[in-house]
Amino acid sequence: MAKLKTTFFCQSCGNQYSKWQGQCTACKEWNTIVEEIIQTPEKSDWKSTTSAVKKAAVPLKIKDIDATNETRLNTFDGEFNRVLGGGIVPGSLTLLGGEPGIGKSTLLLQISLKLPYKTLYVSGEESQKQIKMRAERINPNHNNCYILTETKTQNIFKQIEVLEPDIVIIDSIQTLHSDYIESSSGSISQIKECTAELIKFAKETSTPVILIGHITKDGNIAGPKILEHMVDTVLQFEGDRNYVFRILRAHKNRFGSTNELGIYEMQGSGLREVSNPSEILISKKDEELSGNAIAATLEGMRPLMIEVQALVSTAVYGTPQRSATGFNAKRLNMLLAVLEKRAGFRLGAKDVFLNITGGITVDDPAIDLAVVAAILSSNEDVALQKDICFAAEVGLSGEIRPIQRVEQRILEAEKLGFSTMYVSKYNKISLKNTSIKIQLISKIEDLVGVLV
């Protein structure tokens, strides 16, 4: 007979305690520790019908280990492949998190409908008819995707034994429950147990598993933090509901870089891959307006041209307002102080509003020069030419600092038809025979002399 016992878990960080207490000593949160009943069976295995005899691992010299790259599974989605590092690794466990309604289920269902491999899509949140209606809207020609509505892991593994899929998608991990744990779905112990069973299944059969995870109001993936340590890859699907763009980022990736970025556009027929986001992020306008500047930034290995908008107006109230959307507000205050101290612009009595168009957030310091140019353009009410762009960091003493991978940014600007680009004179540029004109400046006063 299995032994029953109770233990206490922190609902915030997953730390375990032998008795209840008011504050978690690990994360310092109050009233987050709850009691849960745990049932430990004599044998817990995802495949209880067979007991595979595995050869014990032996140590090898590092030079004797086969370093051949394992063949990845192509998802036939360029953006998803880029973020994963080239495709899905067999036997890997991927966790996808995001806001409710942002499009997590749509993204994975759309990918599963494209795959030529046998795919099992397990849903604990929607019925088969609901998924069928969404699939007809996204891709009516689907022959390799199987839909299972089940929340019990033991039943899921029975169907996996029969079907033998190449890829398993779970929507979502918070809805699953195991017979080995006597607690409700979504609890810390259930999430840990179900994830552990899926990891064991993935590693023993080399079948990749993709999980969808809910997030908390703070933006973190719900459940214990150990969940993110257990899986191989953690992806975040984010975006603003008021915009059509969705961004896929990798917060953890054991098989590739975490600097890559995937961009999608939400449409009625699903998510469309955006192969050239620069053309979408830059607004199309017939006349030149003041307060607009184009910056060359990088998201991972991908160069992007983004539009920075600024509005400088006389403060109506005593304290001037400083507002930034998609940009660090503290860095905006720093750049305003540099403009006032080094360039002599009296912005202390004026409201300053800054916006990065497209609903994206950028933390690349290379857009500092474009922010300064947009603020100066709005303050002087002088429109900048549409075919110039900026890529440089601004220091506290007003110097224009060099940035990384400037040549990649220059080539992207040239491809999109820009004629002039302002960069730091301290950047080493070896490009030749380029049609774009490179303007080298060393301090912020040089930019003021050109633009104003």
User: Can you tell me the residue ranges where pLDDT is under 50 for at least 5 consecutive residues?
Assistant: 49-54
Compute the separation of the termini in Å: 83 Å
- Beta strands, count: 21
Strand order of the largest sheet: 6-5-7-8-4-9-10-11-12
Would you tell me the overall average pLDDT? Answer: 86
Number of helices: 11
Radius of gyration: 27 Å
Helix coverage percent: 25-40%
Q: Sheet with the most strands?
A: 9 strands, mixed
What would you call the shape? globular
Strand pairing plus helix content: what structural class?
A: alpha/beta
Proportion of strand residues:
25-35%
What does this entry look like structurally?
The protein has 452 residues and is of the alpha/beta class. The chain has 11 helices and 21 strands. The protein has helices spanning 78-84, 104-114, 128-138, 153-163, 188-205, 226-230, 277-281, 329-342, 368-380, 406-415, 444-451; strands at residues 3-10, 16-17, 33-40, 93-98, 119-123, 145-149, 167-171, 209-213, 233-238, 245-253, 261-267, 270-273, 292-299, 302-314, 322-325, 350-356, 388-390, 393-394, 400-401, 420-424, 437-441. The strands form 5 sheets. A 9-stranded mixed β-sheet has the order 6-5-7-8-4-9-10-11-12, sandwiched between helices. Strand 13 and strand 14 (302-314) form a beta hairpin. Helix 2 crosses helix 3 (128-138). The chain is globular, with a radius of gyration of 27 Å. The N and C termini lie far apart (83 Å). The model is unreliable at 49-54 (pLDDT under 50).
Essential attributes:
452 residues, 9-stranded mixed sheet, alpha/beta, 4-stranded mixed sheet
